[in-house]
Amino acid sequence: MLSPTVESALNDQISIESHSSNAYLALASWCETKGMEGSAKFFYLQSEEERAHMLRLFKYINDSGGKALTPALNQPRTDFSDIMEVVEYFLKGEVRVSDGINKLVYIATQEKDYTTLNFLQWYVAEQHEEETTARNIKDKINLIGLEANGLYLIDKEIGALAAVKPAASEPAN
To answer: What is the pTM for the complete model shown?
Structure first.
């Protein structure tokens, strides 16, 4: 049984994951309309992944005697000057998700909810991976540059990340 504090914090994280899924869908659309199909594919995949993370939290709350709440969605940002700004927005989003997970780990520890703490360990590792991916993309953009040939290479690099990533990086239940 979840404490009201843990249940509320888990529902807050559902909201964060849902917002990220929606925001990454906006990033995919921006990339697609700019002819950056590889980047669009990557961000569509990221959107699906965040939704899967949200659903995993949703199910955990309900299975643990709580009540998962469907979050309201705000319109995400849709205008960007270039792919670097898109990636910086992506990184900021991943840091926000990580901050939420870290807050959850703290609350679960304070509440001595070791089942939830164990459940959250996968998210901690996943967020480390996601932030690293975003930082690596940003580093490659800085290395390659934003000139015409550079944009082509960046799009191919980001698209290659989508090709090696499973549809939703989710552990088997």
So the answer is: 0.90
141 Cβ partners below 8 Å, 6+ apart?
83, 84, 87, 150, 154
Q: Which CATH architecture has domain 4-66+79-164?
A: Up-down Bundle (1.20)
Segment 7-24 shows an average pLDDT of: 98
Each residue of 53-78: pLDDT tens digit? 999 999 999 999 999 999 998 999 99
State both tokens at 7.
């249940």
Domains of the chain by residue range: 4-66+79-164
Element (H, E) at 42: helix 37-63
Q: Which two tokens stand for residue 39?
A: 């980047």
CB-CB neighbours of 24 under 10 Å? 25
Give the confidence band of 141 by pLDDT, cuts at 50, 70, 90. Answer: very high
Residue written as tokens 């925001």? 23
3-state class percentages of the chain: helix first, strand second, coil last, to nearest 5: 75, 0, 25
Query: pLDDT tens digits, residue range 82-103?
Result: 999 999 999 999 999 999 999 9
Q: How far apart are CA 171 and CA 119, in angstroms?
A: 11
- Contact 135/161 with Cβ under 8 angstroms? no
